[in-house]
Specification:
Belongs to the Rv1128c/1148c/1588c/1702c/1945/3466 family. This protein is about 45% helix and about 15% strand. It contains 16 helices and 14 strands.
């Protein structure tokens, strides 16, 4: 690390386009060397934790629980990314010496090092070492796709049975997921066997060609639709059973201020878990006669826009309070976690006297909710912020106020009162 910092400190300011490229190359090499140091440090941290918990006689199956989140937090990343970084560091320092050397010398990027670790994860240590040696001459020279395919080819050759078992396991883990894409769009991704994916695309292509040939590829106002637009509309119609893609009948929660709904405010609406949506796009959608709409009003504190809600005497959060919590926290409240809210959690545990209340509620994904039950983890805070303390005693604090409230207040001093937030959604048919 000192060598990398010395390189950075010795660089003169670039005075030409050529010098800019030279500097970029040197800084990239230094950054890669620093990533190598992080991998070595991460592996050592894992070793320390293993040794400490072995001394405490903690069962092997229970050791290092939640360690991936600690690594992620230390690097300002989600627990999911922290897990990938931890697994990569461990592999580099145990069974991938050539890849580790390429990283610490600045010849290969951290992302490519992760590709090597991930693509060999299912193999034995002996086969991982063999592949590491076989691809050493390509590190830093092959593209991501070339590197991934080269590793897969070696893996399939060295252990055919493991490759076939992995393919079967991946088939059993088939799934569909949704992620925000920004500007009013989302990604709906299906992970499924190759032949099924090919059949899906063939069907969509065939039906798209039929609609185009029949001259039906026009919007409601008569505007011609592109091939991609027609295929996307068919995708929605086939999955939902709707006659048109815009006739949404599923429950979709949309959070917006009354100034947007009834006025000319530019403040965007918000889809919990997906983020902001342009105001005009949502008002046009609400005006669609094919959508079945009703409104609910949620009241907010006039000082900062925080939602106010009810309490319960039951251990489990009621349905409507859970829905309010998902609206408030938007995504999992754990620092840097990007997963959707799945569980309403008692910040102060119910078993220790924590109430089932708005003030004691935190929206978490299932993985983070389970992790916080491990040894040494605590979640504390208020309605407005959450502080996570890890087993090493490090703390990470995040703001949990509704994002839409922050947009409303950003240019107000003192903060402008909000009044009410209107919640609009369409009932399931």
């Amino acid at each position: 690390m000192q060598r990398a910092m010395a390189v950075l400190g010795s660089l003169p300011a670039p005075e030409s386009p050529e010098a800019c490229i030279d500097r970029l190359q040197l800084v990239e090499q230094a950054a890669r060397m620093l990533r190598g140091d992080q991998a070595l440090t991460t592996s050592r941290f894992v070793d320390y934790r293993h040794a400490d918990e072995a001394a405490l006689r903690i069962p092997t199956s229970q050791r290092c629980k939640g360690i991936e989140a600690e690594v992620g937090f230390a690097r300002g990343e989600s627990p999911y990314v922290g897990a990938a970084l931890t697994h990569t560091a461990t592999a580099l320092c145990t069974v991938l010496p050539h890849t580790l050397a390429a990283l610490t010398e600045g010849r290969v990027s951290e992302f490519h090092a992760r590709v090597v670790a991930q693509e060999t994860l299912h193999l034995s240590d002996a086969h991982r070492r063999a592949i590491d040696a076989l691809i050493a001459h390509r590190l830093g020279k092959a593209s991501t796709t070339q590197l991934r395919r080269l590793i897969q080819g070696h893996a399939y050759r060295l252990d055919r049975a493991a490759a076939e078992a992995r393919a079967a396991e991946n088939t059993s883990r088939r799934r569909v997921c949704k992620d925000p894409a920004g500007d009013g769009l989302v990604y709906v991704t299906a992970e499924l066997p190759s032949h099924q994916g090919a059949a899906v695309m063939e069907t969509l292509t065939r039906l798209t060609n039929q609609r185009l040939d029949q001259g039906q590829a026009v919007d409601a106002d008569g505007t011609p639709l592109t091939r991609d637009q027609v295929m996307t509309d068919l995708f929605v119609e086939l999955l939902t059973g709707q006659t048109t893609a815009n006739g949404v009948q599923a429950e979709v929660i949309v959070v917006m201020h009354d100034t947007t709904l009834f006025g000319a405010d530019d403040l965007p609406a918000w889809l919990p878990g997906d983020g902001p949506v342009p105001a005009g796009m949502i008002t046009d959608w609400l005006a669609d006669p094919a959508a079945n709409i009703f409104l609910r009003r949620l009241y907010t504190r006039p000082t900062d826009g925080q939602l106010v809600a009810m309490d319960s005497r039951r251990r489990h959060f009621p349905k409507n309070l859970t829905k309010m919590l998902k609206i408030r926290d938007d995504v999992c409240a754990t620092p840097w976690c990007n997963s959707p809210v799945q569980d309403a959690d008692h910040r102060h545990p119910w078993a220790e006297g924590g109430p089932t209340s708005w003030e004691n509620a935190t929206g978490l994904c299932k993985r983070c909710n389970q992790r916080k039950e491990n040894r040494g983890w605590t979640y504390t805070g208020t309605v407005d912020e959450l502080t996570v303390t890890t087993p090493t005693g490090h703390t990470y604090t995040v703001d949990t106020r509704p994002p839409l409230a922050e947009l409303k207040h950003w240019n107000s001093d003192p903060p402008a009162p909000l009044g009410a937030i209107d919640i609009a959604w369409a009932d399931a048919a």
